[in-house]
Design goal:
The structure is a single chain. This protein is mainly α. Helix content is about 75%, strand content about 0%. It has 14 helices and no strands. The chain has helices at about 20-50, 60-65, 75-105, 115-130, 135-160, 165-190, 190-200, 210-230, 230-240, 240-245, 250-275, 280-290, 295-320, 330-350. The longest helix is centred in the N-terminal third of the chain and has 33 residues, at about 75-105. The protein starts with about 20 loop residues before the first helix and ends with a helix.
Length: about 350
């Protein structure tokens, strides 16, 4: 005996739980997190303007920024504003470069400093200072690009070329990094005049910032950022493997080439302006990946905000710890980054055991 279902009334629908899609909720959380990161960046910028040999309040710093008659006007606009802006741009560049490098090599421990790219830029700039008498950012930056590009190609070639693995790239970068650092130290020891010019630059410093350098750096960072954003989708596809990337319409060869170009521009420009600053491109993408997941469409904006927070915050910390003097920002990031790097390595080994 069969049963006959009663016809459904017009307008009636089957009952289903009304839940928002999980992707929408994740994106909403990511957006809120990015807003919180921007608020933190604003706070760190305020501290960068207020903290120094002569500390002033945030209100006085704001007044000095907006009112020419304020007592702190010259301190804020002539000394601390260029320094803070330089820290923002350099952190922005190094954060994006680290994110791109980790995505390209599929190695969460990759970093432009660890892979020797910053050291290549440093070696080229030091050579220009010592042997050619170059003394301006406009001169530095082209040598920095050349050094970063040459080391990028060498690391890729020594690491195995098309068959390069993350581990081989890291080993090749570490070896070249050690050799280039030794070269930089040798040049400084043999040329005392060059040593005097380079002693602050080689440890990574924002102390010599000026608005001319900030303006010139911003142009190069803009070009590198544009390339980085265009590479987000192809790099996401390459995370699935090169065959899958081709099936999705991405060209692995072009993606690698343009990504290396972006890293070279970003690292070369930042290194020429501030000197070699390490671990920023390692720590920030690691933190961001735990917040957003591996999607570069979210990772790149987060890194662009949180890396300047780290760099400017490290600069402020250096001014506080050694007052009335200061610790160079490169020293502070190295001290903070060393233990963090060891923790990351240990955690990966435990996960693979």
């Amino acid at each position: 005996m069969s049963t006959v279902k009663s016809p459904q009334r017009p307008g009636a629908c089957a009952e289903s739980p009304a839940r928002p899609p999980r992707a929408h909720s994740r994106n909403a959380l990511r957006a809120l997190g990015l807003i919180a990161a921007l608020a933190l960046l604003v706070l760190v910028v305020g501290l960068g303007l207020a903290v120094g040999a002569k500390p002033i309040s945030l209100g006085e710093a704001y007044a000095g920024l907006t009112d020419e008659s304020a007592p702190a006007h010259s301190i804020v606009t002539e000394m601390r504003m260029p320094r803070t802006l330089l820290g923002l741009l350099a952190g922005f560049a190094l954060g994006l470069a680290g994110c791109l490098m980790q995505a390209l090599t599929r190695n969460p421990l990759a970093d432009p400093g660890l892979l020797g790219i910053n050291a290549g830029a440093s070696a080229a700039v030091v050579s220009a200072m010592a042997f050619l008498g170059v003394s301006t950012y406009t001169g530095y930056v082209w040598f920095a690009f050349l050094g970063a590009a040459v080391v990028s190609v060498l690391v890729y070639a020594v690491g195995g070329g098309r068959g390069a693995t993350p581990a081989r790239l890291a080993l090749a970068g570490t070896a070249l990094n050690a050799a280039l650092i030794s070269y930089v130290n040798a040049v400084q020891l043999l040329d005392t005049a060059a040593l005097d010019r380079m002693r602050f630059w080689t440890v990574g410093s924002l102390a010599s910032a000026d608005m001319d350098t900030v303006v010139r750096l911003s142009a190069f960072v803009g070009v590198g950022t544009l390339i980085a954003l265009l590479m987000a989708r192809p790099l996401n596809a390459m995370a699935l493997g090169e065959d899958s990337a081709r099936a999705l319409g991405a060209s692995p060869g072009a993606t690698k080439g343009w990504t290396i170009a972006a890293v070279t521009v970003l690292c070369g420009a930042a290194t020429a302006a501030c000197g070699p600053i390490v671990f920023v491109g390692l720590m920030v993408p690691h933190l961001v990946r735990s917040l957003t997941g591996p999607d570069l469409r979210w990772m790149l904006p987060y890194c662009a905000v949180l890396a300047p927070v780290l760099l400017v915050g490290a600069d402020v910390l250096g001014r506080v710890l050694a007052r009335p003097g200061e610790l160079q920002v490169g020293i502070v990031t190295a001290v903070l980054g060393g233990p963090v790097f060891l923790y990351f390595v240990r955690r990966r080994r435990m996960a693979q055991a």
